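Contributing new records

If you add data, match the layout below exactly. Sequence lines come first and carry their own label; structure lines follow with theirs. Keep one chain per record. Anything else will be rejected by the validation script.
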Amino acid sequence: MDQGYAKSKKQLCWRITVKGIVQGVGFRPYVYNLALKHGLIGTVLNSTLGVIIEILGEENKVEGFYNDLLNKPPRLSVIRHITREVIPQKCFKGFTILTSQKESRREALVPPDVGCCQECKQDMLNPKDRHYLYPFTNCTNCGPRFTLIKDVPYDRDKTSMEPFPMCDECYRDYHEPTDRRFHAQPIACSRCGPEVALVDEKGCDVPGNWLDNFWKFMGEGMVIAIKSLGGFHLACDAHSRKALAALRKRKNRPFKPFAVMARDLDTIKTYCFLGEQEEELLLSPEAPIVILKKRKRDLFEDIAPNLKTLGIMLPYTPLHFLLFNGPFELLVMTSANLKDLPLTRDNEKALIELKETADYFLWHNRDIVNRCDDSLMTVIKDKPQMYRRSRGYVPKPIVIPIPQGVRENTNTGKEEKKEVVLALGSEMKNTFCLMRGEQAFLSQYIGEMDSVESEEHFLASLEHFKRFFQLEPKILAYDMHPHYWTTRMAGEIPAEEKFSVQHHHAHMASCMAENGLNEPVIGIILDGTGYGLDGKMWGFEFFTGDYLDFQREIHLSYLPLPGGEMAVKQPWRAAVSYLITCLGEKGKTIARERFIDKGKELEAIVILLEKNFNCPPASSCGRFFDAVSAFLGVCETSSYEGQAAIELGELVLDRKLCKCTEIEPYPFTIEGGIIDPASTWKALVEDFQSHKEKDLAARRFHDTLVSIIEKAVLIISERSAIKKVVFSGGAWHNQYLLIRSEELLNKLGFEVFTHQNVPPNDGGISLGQAVITYWRWLNHVSGSSGKSYDD
């Protein structure tokens, strides 16, 4: 790390280069004050290469400065790389913060948005402070970054704060190195900064104080669109059934849970169970939505129907804190967008896109450059798990394993085989990934790639990332599904080489990469569907492999899905298919009894199955969950993705049921690499018809999956001698399944790796695609393999 230096008995003069998240996080004032503390002189400046420090002083003081810099950096900074070198002594006059410098190559990292700090909250509530009740108060320790940055270096003129000239007092704070607002680029106050307005559906100002009007309209059961950091929220009083019913009707969202924002931790503890790790997440600078176990309160049936959990967050902007400085302790705060479209971010478009949803609009005149949804997380067995990685975490890079010889040679400054990879990600829950060397930059959550608006959001975000990090990809990775939008886009994006990547291999590699693994593993990939090498839909997969290749060892037998995608939206179709496929004529009789209300539609499904028409085969964990959920009467029709599986999984979260160990799993067979669930369904039907206890049947079904996992891993390990196992795929959001499977495999001597930094669902696919493609490209250019990966 150090570029050779010689100690001097008297004085040292060093140039220190710090790379990582070191801009927009108070790094320069920290360096300034650290230099004064150690009695040193020199300079510090922002550069597109990072922060560059030149320091002069007595040897022991310079080394003390360096050690503090390395071991006690600012709270929000992330040092990825630091070098020091001896330079000729200069005639410094004190210690100076220089103007930002632009280099030909950029290595400075763009900081993510940060939740409002305690000091700024205090300023907002202090009548003697000029930031009193000002909804855009911020400092170097908090506030917007990624969502308002246009370019780097991160300076005010390269953000959406450029139109707001600083008043004299803000200018003074901005230029005072000892002030916590020193070089806080969004610095502003009520005299010079952005302004809030409450407007009606036509965009006309509502007379009176905006905050008083907000509370008044909330109390009347209104739905208000609020412009936040990365886009608009739709808000209403969480206690108002009138408002909740209106919001559900307008968004055509009958069952999908809403996220809520609570005034403070005490409020959260009133409504939810809160553990230590969950509290840390809620209070962290990232301030994500955290999924918590509900306490028994009827209120939440309107907010999160049929679920034992609730997604909840704390206020993370000054504006949010002001909204809760009144009569409301709990507000619904859900993303404002039309179904499957990107988050609304612009004022004028909000009037158009949300006109049928919101009664009023609470907006401001600071532009959102990069739209960014709230991040969503949970805690499983004291470990965090991402559902959606976005605000607060993006664009922090994921550090991943790379082959030897690729890292930068610090002696020569040369880089070997460090080409940039662009991975286009998945069709659903899309993110893209730009990867260079050991740094992988995942985008914010893009969403479903099935609209022109989503495509525009994807391409605009990609251009921002390329500009921020000065990365021009030469290698392209995409999903091998022939009909995906990303596949079409791969044909239009210029690249020197292009690699298609199998969906579940990307899942496995994603978990491997974030855990730093670089060796063969057993991958257990459980999700809804992904295009397989045989042209069929996969989703219940046991692999062995690494980044270069994989082998499909064991999988669930194929199930015909009557109507294709309709079987995903109507899980009862999957249940009928399983009953008939596994139980034959008896299954038809049971299906007609169980789904008697489906009438002619059921008979049409039976005919489709008999003729094998429009019944694409799928080996899918998601459809297995769907079928059981529908048969048990938990969820027959899904109004949002994964509803049937989620509601089935929530049944086994009952603490008494979880602690019960006498329950036997249903039988199954594994022969020739195929998991046959026929005996599972026979036993499930008999069990449910005898007892009619869906909670108990759900528990037995989950234990059956755990038993399948145990047996399959033992079979694979016996012939491969692999002892490391990775879990990936959306089904691993199921807490019971993950905890029980991990505990069992650990007892059997296996080392289990799960996702923490990227989602196990398709939001993490792009990372796996990028890593696989990079390793394959290196393998290809080195000539060590004759394989082709473009098929």
